[in-house]
Design brief:
Layout (H helix, E strand, L loop, with lengths): L2 E5 L8 H6 L2 E2 L4 E8 L8 E6 L6 E3 L2 E3 L1 E8 L7 E7 L2 E7 L3
Parallel strand pairs: 2-9
Antiparallel strand pairs: 1-3, 3-7, 4-6, 4-8, 5-7, 8-9
Amino acid sequence: MTSFTSSPSPVQGLAYASFFSTKVFPPAPDVYLVDVNAGPPGCLTPWTAVSADTSAVQLSPAAGRGRGQVELFIPGNSGAARSTVVLIAGQAATIAQAGR
């Protein structure tokens, strides 16, 4: 089972996908950390982190095993509003960012 928390933290118990799908980020750059819990302690289940549009959201690292953390960097947006899908450990979320 995979679960997520993010920082800044969403409301307790709110899933990472729900948090990102209900938020439109401002055009300023922002960074979020997502904890990946890909199994019980000691589990080495492999996972990946992929952004459909790396100009809108950059993820690091691109892969891991077991528990880990992924940084989502949302660069500043000087154009029109944009959104992209990120997939972390099989869980998809849409990241939306306002334009200037």
